[in-house]
Design a protein that fits this description.
The complex is a heterodimer of chains A (about 110) and B (about 110). By secondary structure, chain A is mainly β. Helices cover about 0% and strands about 50% of the residues of chain A. The mean pLDDT of chain B is about 90. The chains are: A mainly beta (about 110), B mainly beta (about 110).
Chain lengths: ~110, ~110
């Protein structure tokens, strides 16, 4: 069955530390992949997306993500976290060939310690 | 306005009442989605409209839920005979026709069923 999984419900990092948020999917082909961020009291904002080509994609706010076909993963990274990065992060997937429905993971809540 | 607009931002209703939630997408966006976000849950797909095509209703949880989109613009999500488990934030999003386009989200309508 097609699915998207974010294994970490909560993550806490210190300001200035590096960050990696995990996202895995289950699908027989390469889907379209997205990361969204939801800050408290705000709507969801697109951080970055991958459709094809270079497997390392750069996004806004200093985030990047790497698509690894062999691991069915699309992990989000940031070299140095800022306190303002505290938010909830959602991985989302369009399973190509199944319409244009965007399927979201359950999210990872990021806490940043000063 | 420039973004996706949703109303009301907050709605408190009694169990058994009907509610209507409204979404004004970004002008010119042909695709419109409704999602539901419950406490501690990810975003649950409800329904997707694309131009004049038949909507993808595969995510509607029961026949108490319905949605329409008039004139290819404004959409209304209707929940009949509300139940307590319907309490959630209902998010609307829109994008241009191509799937590679960014999905823009409104700030949501928070529904509380007493």
């Amino acid at each position: 069955a097609q699915s998207v999984t974010q294994p970490d419900i909560h993550i806490t990092v210190s300001e200035g530390a590096s960050l990696e948020l995990r996202c895995n999917y289950s699908y027989g082909a390469t889907p379209y992949l997205f990361w969204y961020v939801q800050s408290p009291g705000q709507g969801l904002q697109l951080l970055l997306k991958y459709f094809s080509g270079d497997t390392l994609v750069q996004g806004i706010k200093g985030f990047e993500a790497e698509f690894k076909r062999s691991q069915s993963s699309f992990n989000l990274r940031k070299p140095s976290v800022h306190w303002s990065d505290a938010a909830e992060y959602f991985c989302a997937v369009v399973f190509t060939g199944g319409g244009n429905k965007l399927t979201f993971g359950t999210g990872t809540q990021l806490k940043v310690e000063l | 306005g420039a973004g996706v607009s949703q109303s009301p931002s907050n709605k408190v209703t009694e169990k058994g009442k009907d509610v209507e939630l409204r979404c004004d997408p970004i002008s010119g966006h042909t695709a419109l989605y409704w999602y539901r976000q419950s406490l501690g849950q990810g975003l649950e797909f409800l329904i997707y409209f694309q131009g004049n095509s038949a909507p993808d209703k595969s995510g509607l949880p029961s026949d108490r839920f319905s949605a329409e989109r008039t004139g290819g613009s404004v959409s209304t999500l209707t929940i009949q005979r509300t139940q307590q488990e319907d309490s959630a934030v209902y998010l609307c999003a829109s994008r241009l026709i191509q799937i590679s386009g960014e999905l823009f989200f409104g700030e949501g309508s928070r529904l509380t069923v007493l």
